[in-house]
Amino acid sequence: MQATFQSETFYGGGPRLLEMLSLSPPSNIAAFAESAGKKSQSVVYLATREKIIAAFAVADAIGPESKQASEELKIMGFQVAMLTGHSQAVASAVASDLGIEHVFAEVLPENKDQKIIELQRQGKRVAMVGDGVNDAPALARADVGIAIGSGTDVAIESAGIILVNSNPLDVVKIFKLSPATYRKMIRNLWWAAGYNIVAIPLAAGVLVNWGILLSPAVSALLMSLSTIIVALNAQLLRRIPL
């Protein structure tokens, strides 16, 4: 932030602001920032071009669902990483609370997209979860973009999946339901294809010399039965524990 009051310009921002202004915090403010970082709090500075006037500690509460989602994803074999513009101290503290081992901190908004590219170049398939304007390019770049429903419109437009309830545990449900849906799709494809592979040649009279021929009525019955089986098999997805 930048504002002018009584002919003097004031700035508000995080650690990057101090770098831009080439300012070093005095010992009392540096100690305050270090203490805040250990408590998973971000520090916002108020400064002029000549000096730092004050520092404020702010923090978001970590919901219990976040830690549970991180643990369950790791059990499923996923690598969980944090991508944030917060300071390294804050990011490390939050990651420690959540059990996240991979942390990318102090990432500028325009560089979040580049971090996704770096992971993809390592051969990884990346699912990105975000809710802010700064997350939109990364959400679009990721193999799977997941937006928080309560987030900004641009983030929602950039993602392929939207968490309507804004619950991190829904990310776990996505990765449980997706492979189950794929397996069910393959099975249903074989059910439908199996009917055609068997019934069409029989109806065409391939085995008529052996006295085997499907009448139109029987063929129609089998077609209806195949459709019913596929529909019932798809409904079994409701029984998957999420």
Q: Count all strands and give the number.
A: 9
**Sheet with the most strands, sense and barrel status:** 4 strands, antiparallel
Give the averaged pLDDT, no decimals: 87
Q: State the share of residues found in helices, binned by percent.
A: 40-55%
What Rg, in angstroms, do the CA atoms define? 28 Å
Topology order in helix (H) and strand (E) letters? EEHHEEHEHEHEHEHEHH
SSE-based structural type: alpha/beta
Q: Strand arrangement, largest sheet?
A: 1-2-3-4
Q: Strand portion, in percent?
A: 15-25%
Tally of helical runs? 9
Q: Uncertain regions: pLDDT < 50 for 5+ in a row?
A: none
Distance between the termini: 43 Å
Shape descriptor reads elongated
Task: Describe, in short, the structure shown.
The chain has 242 residues and is an alpha/beta fold.
Q: What do you see in this structure?
A:
It is built from 9 helices and 9 strands. The chain is of the alpha/beta class and 242 residues long. The strands form 3 sheets. It has a 4-stranded antiparallel sheet. A 3-stranded parallel sheet has the order 7-8-9. Helix 7 links the parallel strand 8 (144-148) and strand 9. The chain is elongated and about 100 Å long. The chain starts with a strand and ends in a 7-residue tail after the last helix. The model has no long low-confidence stretch (mean pLDDT 87).
